[in-house]
Design a protein that fits this description.
By secondary structure, this protein is of the alpha/beta class. The chain is built from 10 helices and 13 strands. Helix 6 packs across helix 10. The structure holds nicotinamide-adenine-dinucleotide.
Length: about 325
């Protein structure tokens, strides 16, 4: 199968590219490199630098690649930027999606997978939430993901484009960009290896569902390969394991400390500090993965106990010169 990954130079997209290649698929990438990097990709993967806001450019790439399937990962990722600049957010995350859907229809693409978010479309929940829970997005970023799924439904009905939305929980792992406000593991890891105290917002009792990037990429591969899915399907991709930020910070500190010791360093990782709560942060966000397990046979395989040391090792290699 020939797969076009938009946003394929990013954190999740590049992991997906690796897995698709390992599964014997042909892969091409469309990315504007605004937060992704060519270094994340094997040199021989066909790469098209293009902005999804540019409909002609997107169409041109699809005409050259002629993909059988598309995984649409390209997005502006910042919730706070979406609040400050809702129009920019919609241009990338709504219009960019529509451009990719139109180009997919024009090229008779068989399957279209969309990176949605279980973290922002449900709002506050009390336990692992199922896919049929009502949408309650608060930020323009969340609204764009929610409305993006409605567009997928429309294109599946109107154009027979088979569409799947994967609603990721909080994704972490190697290659995550630590420069945004999302990605607490990447942000904390970077601080810890720089010898600075990471800051926990508020009291840190914010429950999240942390899913490792290779598991998320595998969910994409399964959705891209699936031939029996309904015209439109939406699946949560998470672990249902509740972890609050205090627990996460402690476990990550241990992982970073162990990584330093493994490298012969005697540096002590500073303890985290506490800052003001962040406006709008949900207390609890957890997703159920019953549906994707039943339909695609997906279940998470990487626990935090395994994923955090792996992530710490990657950040240490990137950040520590004398390793
Ligand atoms: N990381 C998470 O926890 C998480 C959770 C839920 C959903 N998602 C979604 O997963 C997808 C991938 O996110 P990620 O964490 O890998 O982030 P990322 O920033 O690493 O990846 C996004 C990629 O899209 C590219 N991109 C951004 N704007 C573009 C544009 N206008 N045109 C073309 N390319 C553009 C970036 O350069 C980058 O390579 C996104 O759609 C995101 O909304 C991520």
């Amino acid at each position: 199968m020939r797969v076009l990954v938009t946003g394929g130079a990013g954190f999740i997209g590049s992991c997906l590219v690796d897995q698709l290649l390992a599964s014997g698929h042909e892969v091409a990438v469309l990315d504007d490199l605004s937060s992704g990097s060519r270094e994340n990709l094997p040199a021989d993967v066909p790469f098209y630098e293009a902005d999804v806001r540019d409909a002609d450019a997107v169409r041109g790439v699809f005409e050259k690649v002629r993909p059988d399937a598309v995984s649409h990962q390209a997005a502006q990722m910042s919730v706070s930027r979406s609040v400050r600049e809702p129009r920019f957010d919609a241009e990338v995350n709504v219009l960019g999606l529509i451009h990719a859907l139109d180009a997919a229809v024009a090229q008779n693409v068989e399957r279209f997978v969309f990176a949605s978010s279980g973290g922002v479309i449900y709002g506050e929940v009390s336990g692992p939430v199922q896919e049929d829970a009502p949408g309650n997005p608060i930020s323009p970023y969340g609204i764009a993901k929610w409305v993006g799924e409605r567009y997928l439904q429309f294109y599946s009905r109107e154009h027979n484009l088979r569409c799947t939305a994967l609603r990721y929980a909080n994704v972490y792992g190697p290659r995550q960009n630590p420069h945004g406000e999302a990605g607490v593991v990447a942000i904390f890891c970077t601080k810890m290896f720089q010898g600075e105290a990471a800051t926990i917002n508020g009291d840190g009792r914010y429950i999240r569902d942390y899913v490792e990037v290779s598991d998320v990429a595998r969910a994409n591969v399964l959705a891209l390969e699936a031939s029996e899915l309904p015209p439109f399907a939406a699946f949560n991709v998470g672990t249902s394991v509740p972890t609050d930020v205090n627990q996460l910070a402690e476990a990550l500190r241990d992982a970073c400390q162990a990584e330093l010791a493994r490298r012969g360093s005697r540096t002590t990782v500073p303890a985290c500090g506490y800052g003001p709560p962040r406006a709008g942060d949900l207390r609890t966000n957890l997703v159920s993965y019953d549906s994707i397990r039943r339909v695609l046979g997906w279940a998470p395989t990487v626990s935090l106990a395994n994923g955090l040391p792996k992530t710490a090792e990657w950040f240490a290699t990137k950040l520590l010169r004398s390793s």
